[in-house]
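STRUCTURE:
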């Protein structure tokens, strides 16, 4: 039996992950706004601190893995960009920073963060908002969304997911994470039929955009199917998986970006690439 923490456990894909872990005989400490072992509001710093401390107390300082599924979708509202930023970005990174030692204590922990295929299929997400988030500056990020008017919540969603995914890939390879036996990876779903998507489909303007979005496989993803991928990413099958982004989106990303990835290192980036080679050798000496 292993011990896991799962946020966003009360609904959608988080709930489907919990169901599978419990059925396999594992212990799960759940975190959500309601119906959870730890009821905490991840949109506030005190709520996040509470979630960190209560989970650590419940598991006795050792975690075999964590799934960060709590998230908010784009919806109309002036405050929505700030809320999305707090939950989708800080609600992941502050919890993982707080749980890192407990994950390291397990020796071979696995972490799965919910990203989104909006990271590669949503155009115009402002780079300066992403940079601000990675620097820990929520206010600067939210300010960068203002010029988008009614589309600000969608941009905040895209920005939060790009930033959290980059945070995952940066941290994943660091001595504090992979060096401590923690495998940190992300899953990037496309449109999956959960209450989050249902809420978007109930908003006429968003429903139109979602229904016209190219999904080569057709229809929407099933939350259980995404949870199956997460379970695999928590298993020993992920021992050699570090900083990966697993896209499960019915082909939308490939439709738009088939030639963008894989992409060899361009000549203008060669110096940076060679620098990273040297840094690695120095670190491991
Ligand atoms: P969902 O709405 O069914 O579940 C999200 C859960 O997060 C809910 O239980 C909710 O209560 C919780 N949550 C929201 N705000 C919170 C807060 N302030 N504090 C604590 N908990 C909070 O959504 P889902 O579709 O299962 O989404 C899971 C993850 O997958 C999210 O991060 C979402 O951004 C991402 N995602 C979803 C889709 C999709 O189409 N459904 C696509 C790509 C990525």
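SEQUENCE:
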């Amino acid at each position: 039996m292993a011990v896991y923490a799962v946020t966003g456990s009360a609904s959608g894909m988080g709930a489907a992950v919990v169901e599978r872990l419990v059925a396999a005989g594992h212990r799960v400490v759940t975190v959500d706004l309601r119906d959870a072992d730890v009821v905490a509001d991840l949109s506030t710093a005190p709520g996040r601190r509470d979630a960190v401390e209560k989970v650590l107390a419940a598991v006795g300082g050792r975690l075999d893995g964590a799934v960060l599924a709590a998230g908010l979708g784009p919806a109309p509202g002036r405050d929505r960009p700030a809320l999305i930023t707090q939950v989708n970005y800080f609600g992941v990174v502050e919890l993982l920073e707080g749980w890192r030692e407990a994950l390291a204590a397990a020796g071979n922990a696995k972490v799965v963060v919910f990203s989104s295929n909006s990271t590669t299929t949503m155009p115009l997400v402002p780079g300066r908002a992403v940079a601000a988030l990675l620097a820990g500056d929520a206010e600067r990020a939210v300010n960068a969304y203002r010029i988008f008017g009614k589309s600000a919540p969608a941009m905040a969603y895209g920005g939060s997911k790009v930033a959290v995914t980059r945070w995952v890939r940066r941290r994943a390879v660091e001595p504090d994470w992979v060096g401590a036996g923690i495998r940190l990876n992300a899953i990037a779903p496309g449109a999956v039929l959960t209450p989050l998507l249902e809420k978007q489909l109930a908003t006429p303007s968003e429903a139109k955009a979602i229904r016209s979005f190219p999904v080569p496989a057709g229809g929407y993803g099933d939350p259980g199917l995404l949870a199956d991928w997460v379970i695999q990413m928590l298993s020993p099958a992920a021992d050699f998986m570090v900083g990966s982004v697993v896209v499960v989106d019915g082909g939308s990303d490939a439709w738009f970006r088939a030639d963008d990835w894989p992409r060899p290192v361009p000549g203008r980036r060669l110096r940076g690439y060679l620098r990273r080679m040297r840094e690695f050798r120095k670190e491991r000496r």
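REMARK: Strands lie at 3-7, 27-32, 38-39, 65-68, 110-114, 183-189, 245-248.
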